[in-house]
Amino acid sequence: MILEGIEMLADADSLFEKRVVQLNSRPVDGGGDCIVYWMQRSQRAYGNLALKYAAGVANHLQKPLLVYFGLYDRYPMGSARAFRFMLEGLKETAAALGEHGVGFVFRREQPWVGVVSLAEQVRACAVVVDEDYLKTGRVWRSSAAERLRMRCVQVDADTIVPARNTPKEEWGAYTLRPKILKVLQDYLIDIPDTWPQRPFEAHVDSWRDITCEDPAALASSLDVEQKVAPVEWARGGHSKAVSRLNSFIDNKLPDYAQERNEIGVDCTSGLSPYLHFGQISPLEAALAVSGSDAPDESVDAFLEQLIVRRELAINFCLYNDKYDSLDGAPQWARETLERHRSDPRPEVYSLQELERAQTHDELWNAAQTELVSAGRIHGYMRMLWAKKLLEWSESPEDALARALFLNDKYALDGRDPNGYANIAWCIYGKHDRPFPSRPVFGRIRYMSTAAAKRKMRWQDYVSRVQKLNKNPLKSLHGADQNR
DNA sequence: ATCGGCTCGCGCAA
DNA sequence: TGCGCGAAGCCGAT
């Protein structure tokens, strides 16, 4: 029996319009036993459109729902820091799914292989997967979809306005913004969760080989960079994301418009690790912020970051395969960087000097120290940080490679579209316009440490970072000398 | 303290 | 085809 339940759901429910992509042309196996949702990026039980879609299909076919997560610890630049955060989130997610009658299978394996064997084992009718907008995950999904003997569909579950609402790569924020604002009110609505009517009752114990009951122990046992240690300021999980969101709204949002660029105080939300691992839905955050009584100016400034800039980054990665290469640069930027390729660099640091925050520039060193010890950099400082990498590297290619390496290695939100777009903006003018030419940078927008110091209470930033670092980082000085 | 110029190309209006 | 405008830039002039 072949059922078209998946198409019916996508057509009937406008919530899924432009979000669903069919990854293979195999039939939905109506004679199967369950629906499998392969959780990849959207690692949450609430506000998850991929989960909602899978539950809708399950209910349509009157089958139970099983969530699969494959833990792949050979992920490039994996660290104990990132894994513990992720596992803390998965522990909460597994518990929440269980309360709603959804099975959860957690295995340590290559997920794109594991999902295929699990789908056979549990006789899946169809497989639903969420979308991470990046190349690696795209390859994983298409490789699995090719081998699956049943229908596999992908759901864009981590945008507010669907990424495919715009069908091509955008030139800049100013081209995407009006397209988003035009339809935004239709998307800023509460979407109730859907749970399967039939609980998953089969024994899942025999299908899993690990548990996420003890995230710290599991993270420390993995074959990943253990010297990049977990951080204490951000523990993973949807509940932690929600309390961080609420305290941000109460304490920082009112001043966000004025203070977000003042590095002397930390007025940022700190939500990006949670958004990166899909531990909170961007819609949940946007609704909470727009419903707050903070000044409109602040609400708008935050929604600009959360929606316009974040979805511009997703648009970049989705439509431009070269998002992690200089080839992703606009023509004018490539030309200007080429023209200035052999300009003398006043300072060139080795990767090791950079990684250890040993430059002549104490403000830059503070940003690098914040990255290594906290797994984040203040938004404004991150721009200056990457701009200086362009100035202090032998070539733009080196600068880009070092920025991506350091960000992916240490940041809790590494390997995210936001990071790729940010670094591309800084180093090769992506989504930016040209500026008067200067050495090394050419027409790429320049930023100076001196100006930052003039404008901001930079000593407050430096001393805040020093406090972070008072428990001197093993990871700072014992940093791996790889590469 | 504020302002314009720098410089390119998209995308809309005409 | 013309024209407004853009992530947070810098710099010099008023």
What does this entry show, briefly?
This protein has 483 residues and is α/β, with parallel strands linked by helices. The chain has helices at 5-12, 49-61, 80-99, 111-121, 135-147, 173-187, 215-221, 238-251, 256-259, 272-276, 282-290, 296-319, 331-339, 351-355, 362-374, 379-391, 396-410, 417-428, 449-455, 458-468, 474-477; strands at 2-3, 20-22, 28-29, 34-38, 65-71, 103-108, 124-130, 151-155.
What can you tell me about this protein's structure?
The chain contains 21 helices and eight strands. The chain is of the alpha/beta class and 483 residues long. The longest helix has 24 residues, at 296-319. The termini are far apart. Mean pLDDT is 93; it is low at 472-483. It binds a DNA duplex (14 and 14 nucleotides) through residues 171-175, 260-261, 304, 309, 330-332, 379-380, 383, 387, 425, 431-438, 443, 445-448, 451.
